[in-house]
Structures are given as C-alpha cells and as structure tokens.
Amino acid sequence: MTTAFKICPHCGKTWPERDVFLEDPGLEVIGYQVDFEAIERGLFLFNHHDCKTTLAIPAARFMDLHNGPFFSERKTGSESCPGHCLKQYELEPCPAECACAWVRDVLQFIRQRPKASQAAAAAHR
Question: CA dihedral defined by 23, 19, 61, 100, rounded to 10 degrees?
C-alpha cells in the first residue's frame, strides 16, 4: 500500500506525491516553524486555499530539494544572523552560513516553483 504525500485534515484532499503537492495552485507556502534542536523537524506551513486551512509538513520531507552545503553550526543570535527563523512567516533567504540556511533555500525553491496551471501554459508556448 502506498502512502499519500499529504492528506488535508480538514477537507480530505489527497496529494499522492510531493511534486503534485508543490504544483497545486490551491496551495501557498506561508512560513516555517523552527525546531532549533533538530532543524529537519521544523514545519513548513502551507495555506490550502480551497478549504481555508493551514497544513504543516516536516522540513525533512523537503530536505533533498536543497542544492548547496549543509552547515553544522547554528548562527542564531549572532551578528551574521538576520533572525529570519525567529519569524514564522518570514520567507526571505538567509545569507548566514548557518545550520538553518538550507531551510531558507528550500523555501525559495518552493516559492519559485511553477504551479500546475503555470507549468501547462509554459509547455504550450
């Protein structure tokens, strides 16, 4: 039995795979809830516009989308840290070489990924 990538707990909509989820025009990434003890356990937050609920998915499920180095040291509170991870709805990239940096990179990837209707329109050009 295969497990769906995500099922909306409010309306029951099912996304069978991550790509289908990320390309759904009814979803929008809105934030990241940090877990400083284990960054991969932090939660990416998505608004499901169809039923007006927010979905939370562990960051670990998106870790492979990061294209760059993984840093071991956390820089939170240092001079090089702009504090993005402390603000749940901050989506901007982070310049710090920090253990949290890969999350910011993945947020950018998700934000820039074309949605299904955009991808279909681009294919017909």
Answer: -50
Number of separate helices (H) and strands (E) present in the chain: 3, 5
- Whole-number Cα distances in Å, 46 to 5, 34, 97: 14, 14, 26
The candidate with the shortest Cα–Cα distance to 33, out of 42, 25, 24, is 42
Which two tokens mark 34? 């940090």
What does the alpha-carbon distance between residue 89 and residue 92 come to, in Å, rounded to a whole number? Answer: 9
pTM of the model: 0.88
Q: Using alpha carbons, select from 88, 94, 75 the residue that is nearest to residue 43.
A: 88
d(CA 96, CA 46): 25
Tell me the pLDDT tens digit for each residue of 16-46.
999 999 999 999 999 999 999 999 999 999 9
Per domain, the residue ranges of the chain are: 6-113
Structure-token match 């003890």, residue found: 37
Q: What is the pLDDT of residues 81-117, one digit of tens each?
A: 999 999 999 999 889 999 999 999 999 999 999 998 7
